[in-house]
């Protein structure tokens, strides 16, 4: 399998009133063709900023450094115009809030057509045909009618289907889905995930799926990176992740999933909160919240260690890492 | 203190405050600043170009324009304070009561009257009120104040409506705190910021409105020096003494700019919803 | 449709209150209106005749309803000084004011839209600061003084444009338009400042919304994102401001009309105030208020055209 996206030492900083803060701090990962990569972590750990950095859609006070290579192209080196030809065409994005991510004043059809007409040499009629075909492909009943309807006439799940239709309309090689089901009801969530999986199998597109929900990861992903405080703390394939999670943070996340077959009195949660970007601990960033923290954890930041099929950023595995 | 420091960092707002401060000082010390009696006529020096003696020149009656502009500051600052004062005196209590008690009076009497009042173009309303009451500074102030009142009713009422459902107000009510105390001790202080911003911006409009009415001959009556009436008198001389129209206008512009800058600056500091 | 009907019904109480306020005008004159109008030297016969004409000898409620009845038929009474129907006077004066309003509005949007969009797109740059500061300055210039400065520059020092000489458009279109340039510029510049600030802040609100990010993620460039997606969403407050502006102008051109000797509606009111022609003042302010109510109604209907959610009975904020 070929690698389509390679991210190396990605750093994203924001200029704010209280100085420059680093939200993404030296992130490496790659996505192969046809693969679904899960990006997991609590809110505030830099997942969304990572995705917006790849799309180069950060607000004006944001600044990205490092390397992002997409299909051999140096994304950060592209001109804005070249980047526009990539967005929506080769890399498409699905956002978290279907209620607000569609333009309320344009019909659904027009919003899908717009992307098609922008990136393909097609007539208006062909674009319309494509839009209706896409609406059908995402499982919309009465696609012809919905084509002419406004977002406020649709439910949240339907709107997210529209977002997916829009994202898929130009056959992108990579779809970045940022918490695509978080804002939806549980039953609708399952439908949308099924839809995404089906479409992925049909088209062979790669997906970068950002979520805080390990259930979604289990259902959708091939490989996973776990992010904490702007860094990757664990990277592995999805089976290994659930069989033997390494990083205490990952283990903490696992323990906070409610399970139906287990009768637990309390749902475990990780105490504390993600540190704010301008008050990062000097040692391991997770140490203040870690139940297994050792003296060294507060002194020196751990490296991302190569373990057996897993990468992990934790002092607990320092010896094991050296042996490898 | 934090608010003050935040305001001081807002450059334009500070410039506005300084302009207004200068205006107030000029108004207070007008007799010391003005080199001539603003009403003293000198028939040997009619329509003189600005020179070392008469900084802004003289008008058709030989009066020193600089001195008249300086004294005009008194009318202008009074116009700002009195007209907005009247508007607040009418608007804020009505807005407070209407928003707090709601119901039929609020919905059908107060708010529909506000709608109806705001249907009259502002200057026309002021003209009509002046027509009824007669011309003169006091009546002009009343006319402008009444014209501004609906805006204060609206803004105060809107604040009360959003505050009255807050937990701490509900809590105060549930333990039996008297309405009057809730309104004046709990609601009014929290509703004050937008009212203050509105008042500052209304002062800018009040100055323009007073100048407009005086320009039309319905405000301050001659010979009292007011910038509006100076422009009225200078208009007929535009082709021979253009400088006579220049300085009173610049004075109005600067002062109105001052209030607008201050209002804008206050809005950015006091109103959390406002943008940078 | 429900939206339209509801909105129409809401104007009825407002128009009623407007009529009561206008009617009360004559009765707010301190003392005896007929005496104030005629002066102390009037003969008892003339005094009695005016009282009858104004209906002052009847109970006030009867007066109001008979006045309202006439108004509804388009009868605004007879001018006390000119002895012609007030409605006729108003119809003579309205065309010039309407023309002035349209011209001013054109000047305002032609300046405000490019400037507002540019300031919003280049937010935080010198383009933004310059235009925002200029707008704040523009808002602070009294329009009648700006008018005078323009007259001095364009008409007195250089004979480029006429400062007066209004003729009806149909009589002499060229002269009419020439005479309208300075008045429209003088008021339009100020209004453009107000509109530009509104457009800028409204656009800045919109460009931070999620669907703008979606539009960019599609690959649209800045210009197409702003013009195709942000602008229309930013229009509701701008339309509101424009409506208020047109409404205000219809009556507020009083001063511009005075300076440029344009026989407009505003001037009619000023003249009537000085002549103590209360019947004309009353009729004219009633007409101005009704026009404003109509403009506001039109603005609300426009919302429904701009935003499909309003027709559906949902607020724009949902």
TrEMBL record, chain A:
Coiled-coil region: none
Protein origin, superkingdom: Bacteria
Domain ABC transporter, chain residue ranges per copy: 5-254
GO molecular function, one term: ATP hydrolysis activity
GO biological process, one term: peptide transport
Membrane topology per record: Peripheral membrane protein
Subcellular location: Cell membrane
GO CC annotations, alphabetized: plasma membrane
Sorted UniProt keywords: ATP-binding, Cell membrane, Membrane, Nucleotide-binding, Transport
Keyword Metal-binding tagged: no
NCBIfam families found in the cross-reference section: oligo_HPY
Record-stated family: Belongs to the ABC transporter superfamily.
Protein name stated in the entry: Peptide ABC transporter ATP-binding protein
TrEMBL record, chain B:
Protein location: Cell membrane
Annotated ranges, domain ABC transmembrane type-1: 73-263
Segments crossing the lipid bilayer: 12-34, 75-97, 240-263
Family of the protein in this entry: Belongs to the binding-protein-dependent transport system permease family.
Keyword Membrane: yes
Pfam families: BPD_transp_1, OppC_N
Name under which the protein is recorded: Glutathione ABC transporter permease GsiD
From TrEMBL, chain C:
UniProt main location, coarse: membrane
One GO CC term, this protein: plasma membrane
Membrane topology listed for this record: Multi-pass membrane protein
Matches recorded under Pfam families: BPD_transp_1, BPD_transp_1_N
Signal peptide location: none
Subcellular location: Cell membrane
Entry-linked CDD domains: TM_PBP2 (cd06261)
Keyword annotations: Cell membrane, Membrane, Transmembrane, Transmembrane helix, Transport
InterPro entries membership: BPD_transp_1_N (IPR045621), MetI-like (IPR000515), MetI-like_sf (IPR035906)
Transmembrane region(s): 7-29, 100-121, 133-156, 176-195, 234-255, 284-306
An example Gene Ontology molecular-function term: dipeptide transmembrane transporter activity
Gene3D superfamilies assigned: MetI-like
The keyword Membrane is annotated on this UniProt entry: yes
UniProt similarity note: Belongs to the binding-protein-dependent transport system permease family.
Record protein name field: Peptide ABC transporter
């Amino acid at each position: 399998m070929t690698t389509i996206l390679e991210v190396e030492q990605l750093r994203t900083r924001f200029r704010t009133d209280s100085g420059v803060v680093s939200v993404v701090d030296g992130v490496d990962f790659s996505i192969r063709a046809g693969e679904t990569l899960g990006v997991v972590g609590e809110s505030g750990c830099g997942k969304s900023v990572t995705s917006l950095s790849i799309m180069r859609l950060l607000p004006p006070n944001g600044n990205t450094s490092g390397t992002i290579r997409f299909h051999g192209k140096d994304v950060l080196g592209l001109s804005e115009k070249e980047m526009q030809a990539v967005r929506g065409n080769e890399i498409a994005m699905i956002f978290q809030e279907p209620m607000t991510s569609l333009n309320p004043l344009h019909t659904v059809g027009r919003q899908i057509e717009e992307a098609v007409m922008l990136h393909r040499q097609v007539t208006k009629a062909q674009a319309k045909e494509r839009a209706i075909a896409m609406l059908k492909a995402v499982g919309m009943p009465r696609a012809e009618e919905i084509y002419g309807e406004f977002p406020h006439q649709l439910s949240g799940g339907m709107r997210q289907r529209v977002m997916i239709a829009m994202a898929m309309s130009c056959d992108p090689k990579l779809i970045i889905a940022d918490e695509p089901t978080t804002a939806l009801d549980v039953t609708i969530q399952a439908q949308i995930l099924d839809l995404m999986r089906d479409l992925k199998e049909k088209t062979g597109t790669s997906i970068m799926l950002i979520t805080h929900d390990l259930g979604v990861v289990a259902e959708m992903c091939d490989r996973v990176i776990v992010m904490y405080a702007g860094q990757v703390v664990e990277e592995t394939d999805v089976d290994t992740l659930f069989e033997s999670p390494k990083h205490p943070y990952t283990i903490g996340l696992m323990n906070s999933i409610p399970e139906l077959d287990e009768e637990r009195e309390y749902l475990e949660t990780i105490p504390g909160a993600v540190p704010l970007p301008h008050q990062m601990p000097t040692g391991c960033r997770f140490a203040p919240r870690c139940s297994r923290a050792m003296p060294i954890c507060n002194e020196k930041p751990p490296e991302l260690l190569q373990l057996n099929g897993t990468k992990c950023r934790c002092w607990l595995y320092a010896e094991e890492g050296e042996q490898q | 203190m934090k608010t003050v420091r935040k305001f001081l960092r807002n450059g334009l707002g500070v410039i506005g405050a300084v302009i207004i401060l200068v205006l107030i000082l000029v108004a207070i010390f007008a007799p010391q600043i003005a080199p001539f009696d603003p009403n003293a006529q000198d028939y040997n020096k009619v329509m003189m170009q600005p020179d070392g003696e008469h900084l802004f020149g003289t008008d058709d009656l030989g009066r020193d324009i600089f001195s008249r502009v300086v004294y005009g500051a008194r009318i202008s600052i009074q116009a700002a304070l009195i007209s907005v004062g009247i508007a607040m005196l009418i608007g804020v209590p009505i807005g407070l009561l209407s928003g707090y008690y709601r119901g039929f009076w609020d919905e059908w009497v107060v708010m529909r009257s506000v709608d109806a009042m705001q249907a009259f173009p502002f200057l026309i309303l002021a003209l009509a009120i002046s027509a009824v009451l007669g011309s003169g500074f006091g009546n002009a102030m009343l006319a402008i104040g009444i014209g501004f009142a609906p805006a204060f009713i609206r803004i105060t009422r809107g604040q009360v409506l959003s505050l009255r459902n807050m937990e701490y107000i509900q809590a105060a009510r549930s333990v039996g705190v008297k309405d009057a105390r809730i309104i004046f001790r709990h609601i009014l202080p929290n509703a004050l910021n937008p009212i203050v911003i509105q008042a500052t911006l209304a002062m800018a409009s009040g100055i323009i409105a007073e100048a407009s009415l005086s320009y039309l001959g319905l405000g301050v009556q001659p010979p009292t020096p007011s910038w509006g009436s100076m422009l009225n008198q200078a208009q007929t001389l535009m082709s021979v003494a253009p400088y006579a129209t220049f300085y009173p206008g610049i004075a109005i512009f600067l002062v109105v700019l001052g209030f607008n800058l201050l209002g804008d600056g206050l809005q950015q500091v006091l109103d959390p919803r406002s943008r940078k | 449709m429900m939206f339209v009907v509801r909105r129409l019904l809401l104007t009825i109480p407002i128009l009623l209150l407007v009529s009561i306020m206008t009617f009360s005008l004559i009765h707010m004159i301190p003392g005896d209106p007929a005496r104030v109008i005629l002066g102390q030297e009037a003969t008892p016969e003339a005094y009695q005749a005016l009282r009858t004409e104004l209906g002052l000898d009847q109970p006030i409620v009867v007066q109001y309803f008979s006045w309202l009845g006439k108004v509804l038929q388009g009868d605004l009474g007879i001018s006390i000084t000119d002895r012609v129907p007030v409605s006729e006077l108003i119809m003579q004066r309205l065309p010039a004011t309407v023309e002035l309003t349209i011209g001013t509005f054109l000047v305002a949007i032609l300046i405000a839209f490019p400037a507002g969009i540019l300031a919003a797109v280049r937010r935080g740059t010198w383009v933004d600061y310059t235009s925002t500061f200029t707008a704040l300055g523009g808002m602070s210039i009294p329009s009648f003084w700006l008018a005078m400065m323009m007259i001095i520059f364009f008409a007195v020092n250089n004979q480029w444009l006429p400062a007066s000489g209004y003729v009806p458009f149909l009589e002499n279109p060229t002269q009419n338009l020439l005479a309208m340039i300075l008045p429209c510029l003088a008021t339009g510049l100020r209004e453009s400042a107000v509109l530009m600030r509104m457009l800028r802040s409204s656009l800045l609100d919109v460009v931070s919304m999620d669907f703008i990010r979606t539009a960019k993620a599609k690959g649209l460039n800045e210009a197409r994102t702003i013009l195709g997606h942000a602008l229309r969403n930013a229009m509701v407050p701008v339309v509101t401001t424009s409506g208020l502006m047109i409404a205000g102008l219809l009556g507020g051109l009083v001063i511009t009309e005075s300076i440029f000797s344009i026989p407009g509606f505003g001037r009619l009111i000023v003249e009537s105030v000085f002549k103590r022609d209360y019947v004309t003042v009353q009729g004219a302010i009633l007409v101005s208020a009704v026009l404003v109510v109509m403009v506001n109604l039109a603005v609300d209907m426009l919302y429904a055209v701009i935003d499909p959610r309003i027709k559906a009975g949902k607020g724009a904020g949902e």
